[in-house]
Design brief:
One of its GO terms (cellular component) is plasma membrane. Residues 1-105, 108-227 form the CUB domain. This is CUB domain-containing protein. With 232 residues, the protein is an all-beta fold. The protein folds into two domains: 6-105, Jelly Rolls; 108-228, Sandwich (Jelly Rolls), CATH 2.60.120.290. 0% of the residues lie in helices and 45% in strands. It has no helices and 16 strands. The strands form four sheets. Strands 9, 11, 13, 14 and 16 form a five-stranded antiparallel sheet that branches. The protein is elongated and about 65 Å long. The termini are far apart.
Length: 232
């Protein structure tokens, strides 16, 4: 139970290359607008605001209320602020507030080895929330005579032409080589209703997720699985 008519601010300042990521582990705020699991309008409600822009303008912040756990969030700079605003007039013993974990990250880099797991999941930063301006690398390394199957779903990355350097769309690229582009691959961007499947030529595969400040989307969810097969 938290006090009424109160405001708490949590401000995070990292080193120049740092990015701040927060993950809520509990969320239960007083909500009078209907079912708390379906809260969508936080006007006049107890709420948590996440700021990633130092101007502190509400137009550039995201508000959460009710009792549905917010998605993970990652900043696109070494700064982030979380503000809790309690506007309720009476305390409710069933309303327990919120808790979250935070971490400072210097790079968006993920490695997946078949020796640890034959299959699994991965996502864009903050999924299913809004992804930040960033560059993420996902590297996959399988056993000899094994290949990789990757399925991307709920894809919402950039817009327009993925290859157009003028539009500078966010995109996902992939390659069978560690330090070089794959001439046979094409960038992926836009919104896809269906899943998109990628199959590696050999035991190594790399996915790059590149974004900027022009467009913000939900990103993607990925599943991967190594399978026995000869290299192409």
């Amino acid at each position: 139970m938290y006090p009424t008519r109160s405001t708490c601010t949590y401000e995070f300042n990292g080193l120049p290359r740092d990015r701040i990521q927060i993950r809520f582990t509990h969320f239960m705020l007083s909500y009078s607008g209907g079912r708390c699991e379906e809260a969508y309008d936080c006007t006049g409600q107890d709420s948590v605001w996440i700021y990633v822009d130092k101007t502190n303008r509400n137009a550039n912040a995201k508000a959460f209320c009710g009792c549905k756990l917010p998605p993970q969030y990652m900043s696109d700079s070494p700064w982030m602020k979380v503000r809790f605003i309690a506007q309720s007039l009476q305390q409710d013993p069933t309303v327990t507030g919120f808790s979250f974990q935070y971490s400072f990250r210097t790079a968006c880099y993920f490695k997946f080895f078949q020796s640890y797991a034959n299959k699994g999941m991965f996502t864009s930063p903050n999924y299913p929330g809004i992804y930040p301006s960033t560059k993420c690398i996902y590297e996959f390394k399988g056993h000899i005579q094994h290949r990789l199957n990757v399925t991307l779903s709920n894809f919402d990355v950039g817009y327009g032409s993925c290859e157009d350097e003028v539009e500078k769309s966010d995109y996902v690229a992939y390659s069978n080589f560690r330090d070089a582009a794959d001439k046979g691959s094409k960038r992926l961007c836009g919104k896809m209703r269906s899943t998109h499947t990628l199959i590696s030529d050999g035991a190594y595969f790399r996915i790059e997720f590149v974004t900027n400040e022009v467009y913000q989307g939900r990103g993607f969810k990925g599943r991967y699985e190594f399978f026995r097969g000869k290299e192409n």
